[in-house]
């Protein structure tokens, strides 16, 4: 099968096409013909072998990905596709099902024509694809939305909380804005001036341009500060909290759970959660996709199309 691999850490140039054996599903595994994947921040960190701004998290990252070189050479942390075959003990899925999920912790990622995903377990999650979403949209949902939900729950978000989301126009940020609304919070979105309309269109009560506003002068009026990009020191954001306020950042550990995807299905069917797509690249242009994401200006998500049909 066709795949994009990286044998060393580094720039997007380390991503190279290669023919790999087509995987065979075992026991409780699904063989998924991949339709789409994405370029997430985590994918960039794994390709570089560096967690930005933290030596500790870089060490933890290398323990996971490989100390001196990648031990899981196919990237792609999330996917959508169609079940082509199933193991003998699979009970929740059938051949032909449209699915989506994550490859976190698995031996192979989704930058390949096929990937094997366990029906359930501690590594990777998979669910039936919401019929309201295209394959491209579904492929960008799991990582960003689950990260956003994890951090909102960590912050113990409550109805009527005033929350500031810094970096509201990126992948995690756009999901955080929409999910915070589902909790009944009042969202102030911080993003570039060019993305103010986007932030308002997905539910922000107020949108502020970080490039035209002195953010620290907003005052201590927020119950929650949600840093969705991790590019600004916490010391600059925490003064904006009330005394009982909570601060959460993308620079923290999060978890993936199947029931999160079930919750997203409900929100999607109600029209209250929608992936934001910036650009779409074919698999053979995945290096260009990584280069674009590294510019730091994407709106929502960047899709990697593995197969058109």
Give the secondary structure arrangement, pairings included.
Layout: E1 2-6, E2 15-19, E3 29-38, H1 41-48, H2 55-65, E4 78-86, E5 98-102, E6 114-118, E7 126-128, H3 135-138, H4 142-154, E8 162-166, H5 171-182, E9 186-191, H6 196-201, E10 206-209, E11 222-227, H7 234-237, E12 241-249, H8 258-269, E13 277-282, H9 286-294, E14 301-305
Parallel strand pairs: 8-9, 8-11, 9-10, 11-12, 13-14
Antiparallel strand pairs: 1-2, 3-4, 3-6, 3-14, 4-5, 5-7
Helix pairs in contact: 4-5
* CATH-level-4 superfamily name of the largest domain: Medium-chain alcohol dehydrogenases, catalytic domain
Beta-strand portion reads 25-35%
Total of DSSP H or I helical runs spanning 4+ residues = 9
CATH class of the largest domain, named Alpha Beta
- Biggest sheet: strands, sense, closure? 7 strands, mixed
Number of domains: 2
Low-confidence stretches: none
Reported CATH architecture of the largest domain: Alpha-Beta Complex
Estimate percent helicity: 25-40%
Structural class label: alpha/beta
């Amino acid at each position: 099968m066709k795949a994009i691999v990286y044998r060393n850490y580094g720039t997007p140039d380390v991503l190279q096409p290669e023919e790999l054996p087509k995987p065979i599903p075992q026991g409780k595994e699904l063989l998924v013909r991949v339709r789409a994947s994405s370029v997430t921040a985590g994918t960039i960190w794994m390709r570089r072998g560096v967690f930005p701004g933290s030596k500790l998290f870089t060490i933890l990252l290398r323990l996971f990905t490989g100390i001196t070189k990648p031990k899981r050479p196919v990237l792609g942390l999330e996917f959508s596709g169609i079940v082509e075959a199933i193991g003998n003990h699979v009970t929740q899925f059938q051949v032909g099902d449209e699915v989506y999920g994550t490859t976190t912790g698995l031996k192979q990622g989704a930058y390949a024509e096929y990937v094997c995903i366990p029906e359930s377990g501690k590594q990777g999650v998979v669910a039936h694809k919401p019929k309201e979403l295209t394959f491209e949209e579904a492929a960008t949902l799991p990582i960003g939305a689950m990260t956003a939900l994890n951090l909102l729950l960590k912050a113990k978000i409550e109805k009527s909380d005033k929350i500031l989301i810094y970096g509201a126009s990126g992948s995690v940020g756009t999901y955080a804005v929409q999910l915070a609304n589902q909790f009944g919070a009042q969202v102030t979105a911080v993003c570039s001036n060019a993305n103010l309309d986007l932030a308002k269109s997905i539910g922000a009560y107020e949108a502020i341009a970080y490039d035209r506003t002195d953010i620290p002068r907003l005052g201590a009026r927020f119950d929650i500060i949600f840093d969705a990009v991790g590019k600004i020191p916490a010391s600059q954001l925490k003064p904006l909290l009330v005394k009982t306020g909570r601060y959460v950042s993308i620079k923290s550990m999060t978890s993936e759970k199947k029931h999160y995807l079930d919750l997203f299905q409900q929100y999607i069917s109600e029209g209250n959660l929608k992936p934001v797509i910036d650009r779409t690249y074919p698999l053979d242009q995945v290096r260009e996709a990584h280069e674009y994401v590294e510019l730091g200006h994407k709106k929502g998500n960047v899709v990697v199309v593995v197969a058109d049909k």
